[in-house]
Amino acid sequence: MAKGNVSLSVIRRLPRYHRFLKDLLNAGTVRISSGDLSAKMGLTASQIRQDLNCFGGFGQQGYGYNVRDLYEEISKILGLGKHRKAILLGAGNLGRAIALHMDFSSRGFELMGIFDSNPALMGLAVGDQAVQDSAGLEAFCKLHRPDIAILCIPKEAAKAVAPMLVRHGIRGFWNFSHYDLTLDYDGIAVENVHLGDSLSTLCFRVNELEQAESE
What we know:
Blueprint: H1 8-26, E1 31-32, H2 34-41, H3 45-53, E2 65-66, H4 67-78, E3 84-89, H5 93-101, E4 109-116, E5 125-126, E6 129-130, E7 132-133, H6 137-144, E8 148-151, H7 155-167, E9 172-175, E10 189-192, H8 195-214
Parallel strand pairs: 3-4, 3-8, 4-7, 8-9, 9-10
Antiparallel strand pairs: 1-2, 5-6
Helix pairs in contact: 1-4, 2-3
């Protein structure tokens, strides 16, 4: 259980802890100290202890962390066992790649519908889903009450459809559209994903390395 408000930076590290702990489980590791975990993750042992203490600690002095117990606790904190309902808007290259290659069930979601406005994509099989016409999106939301929407559509399309989605109970957006929904809506969770920003950041870091090498 979280102690009061937990910073977003701590929350963003939880999936990384979860991923490393899963690797440790798969390798047969039973327990691990904060020092050993820090060496694997590139964090300080102090940072790991501080992060986990936000949710109760879980470690034992002189023993460290039981890997399975900590993995399961972080799974609960992240809500990965609830399997909330998700829809995906935009069945272009990016949308199809996400639908096909993201393991939604292990991350707490069930992908229950894919929508697009392009007539050429209607009925296209994407994994175990068939692309549906966006014209039927509102009726689908009324009937099935999805929890989150994944937006792989242009900025203006996202801006146009967002009010309807929020009105019909969407609580969160995984947003690739470059439209910042948090500017217009309170009380919803938004994860904005800007792949171009990430690539530009990589470019900067490579430039820094090159400059350092040339000095």
